[in-house]
Amino acid sequence: MTGRLNDALRRVPVWPLYIAGAVPPLWWLWLGLTGGLGVEPIEALEHRLGELALQVLIAGLCVTPLRRHLGVNLIRFRRALGILAFSYVLLHLLVWLALDVQIPAQIWADIAKRPYITVGMAGFVLLLPLVATSNDRAVRWLGPRWRRLHRLTYLAVLLGAIHYVMLAKGFQIEPLLYLGGIVVLLALRLPVRRRLLPA
Amino acid sequence: MARRWTSDLSPRDVTPERAFLNRRQILGGLAAAGAVTLSSPRARAQEALEPNSWEEITSYNNFYEFGTGKDDPARYAGQMATSPWTVAINGLVDRPGEYAFKDIMARMEIEERIYRFRCVEAWSMVVPWTGFELADLLDMAGIQERATHVAFETLLRPEEMPGVARPVLDWPYVEGLRLDEAMHPLTLMATGIYGRDIPNQNGAPLRLVVPWKYGFKSIKSVVRITLTDSEPPTSWNVANSREYGFYSNVNPDVDHPRWSQATEREIGGGLFSPRKPTLMFNGYEDEVASLYEGMDLSVHF
């Protein structure tokens, strides 16, 4: 069953994922310019991009557990998920810089003074070496070190979710669900778990 | 007590949106021709206030009883039954009781107030409210000597309010003012916007408007007003006292712990809307600064 599924997945090309991934930001930008994002389009665009980035990062975290526990192999798509997620984080950051805060002096003050922004920025910075080494040449060059380096994803995603939890007003359940999901996906990777689970 | 504060440019009680726009154009034209000289700096400040559109004012709201999304109130608040409506006025008053909204309306003088509205989230609007001074309502109930504060409570009706199923805040929503703040001529009980009945998402049928404080102080859909002799609890302060003080006066120099309050974005400017500096007491410094004389506003934030 999973064998047939994996065979079918092997025949699915990866490139359409990049095309599909470009659609939401472009569509939202169009909506934002034409009034489709409501009367405060900057906040809407910023939040949608941030949330999409988290969702795609979570999708990337699902690849390994799906293969290990259900035998479904999506590893071919993982790089695209990572690059798309990074692109969304970058756009989210650019919207914040250029459209939301706007004032350079305030940007630096915010990064230093506002913990939720510090945390979000830290997550973004951690993604930089990962996107820089997401090509085949870097994978070959780094060898086994590539896997160790890319474990930074775990911390980056966690920081992204904490960033979301920290900016909620009042007690809100949605950011906590993201954080909870991420913690579960990370816990599935703990070596202890691996030994406890049947091979 | 009514009409203690007037903006020189709202001579009529009720102005439809189109007339608002026309009047601005006419005044603009006259001013350009030198035919109109505005009398005072305050009048000029009012002149500069350009109300947001009905659409903007009624589609972007924080009313967590209907959900935490900005469009949730416009989507779900329609279920809230606002007629009949009574306001319980009790505590340290001579004539406590359940006051029917329509009886209140019959006794109050309705006037128009174009106010800046500054949310604690650093966005702002200009809203052409209609309503009456809170002072008149409190006088109607008779304020007793011992009263020092006023507590307010929002309707709590879970079957009509999907948001209260979640413990975002400790429901019902409560707010409070010091008595002198409550009696200030700027402090309004709004019952309309652009001369129309106030829509549910904006706090029908009557809500507080304290224009020099962050928006969350201006409690919506009020069902209870209690005169007290001590500072009453307020919902956001109870939820997070480090971030939300009892006073919550608009103050560009006192940041929210998580974001700057120095600037704000006016709703309606689109994707490239610039930030503008936030004004002390939201631009009502001349009118209200004396209320806080001698107080350290970074302590009593």
TrEMBL record, chain A:
The keyword Transmembrane helix applies. Its cofactor is heme b; FMN. It is found in: Cell membrane; Membrane. One of its GO terms (cellular component) is plasma membrane. InterPro entries: Fe3_Rdtase_TM_dom (IPR013130), MsrQ-like (IPR022837). The chain crosses the membrane at residues 12-32, 52-68, 80-99, 111-131, 152-170, 176-192. The keyword Endoplasmic reticulum does not apply. Keywords: Cell membrane, Electron transport, Flavoprotein, FMN, Heme, Iron, Membrane, Metal-binding, Transmembrane, Transmembrane helix, Transport. One of its GO terms (molecular function) is electron transfer activity. Belongs to the MsrQ family. Heterodimer of a catalytic subunit (MsrP) and a heme-binding subunit (MsrQ). This is Protein-methionine-sulfoxide reductase heme-binding subunit MsrQ. The lineage of its organism: Bacteria, Pseudomonadati, Pseudomonadota, Alphaproteobacteria, Rhodobacterales.
Automatic annotation (TrEMBL), chain B:
It is an enzyme of class 1 (oxidoreductase). Binds 1 Mo-molybdopterin (Mo-MPT) cofactor per subunit. This is Protein-methionine-sulfoxide reductase catalytic subunit MsrP. Keywords: Metal-binding, Molybdenum, Oxidoreductase, Signal. The lineage of its organism: Bacteria, Pseudomonadati, Pseudomonadota, Alphaproteobacteria, Rhodobacterales. Its cofactor is Mo-molybdopterin. Its EC number is 1.8.5.-. Mo-molybdopterin binds at residues 61, 64-65, 119, 154, 202, 207, 218-220. One of its GO terms (biological process) is protein repair. Part of the MsrPQ system that repairs oxidized periplasmic proteins containing methionine sulfoxide residues (Met-O), using respiratory chain electrons. Thus protects these proteins from oxidative-stress damage caused by reactive species of oxygen and chlorine generated by the host defense mechanisms. MsrPQ is essential for the maintenance of envelope integrity under bleach stress, rescuing a wide series of structurally unrelated periplasmic proteins from methionine oxidation. Predicted to be exported by the Tat system. The position of the signal peptide cleavage has not been experimentally proven. Residues 81-236 form the Oxidoreductase molybdopterin-binding domain. Belongs to the MsrP family. It comes from Roseivivax sediminis. HAMAP family: MsrP. It catalyses: L-methionyl-[protein] + a quinone + H2O = L-methionyl-(S)-S-oxide-[protein] + a quinol; L-methionyl-[protein] + a quinone + H2O = L-methionyl-(R)-S-oxide-[protein] + a quinol. InterPro entries: MsrP, OxRdtase_Mopterin-bd_dom, OxRdtase_Mopterin-bd_sf, TAT_signal. One of its GO terms (molecular function) is molybdopterin cofactor binding. Heterodimer of a catalytic subunit (MsrP) and a heme-binding subunit (MsrQ).
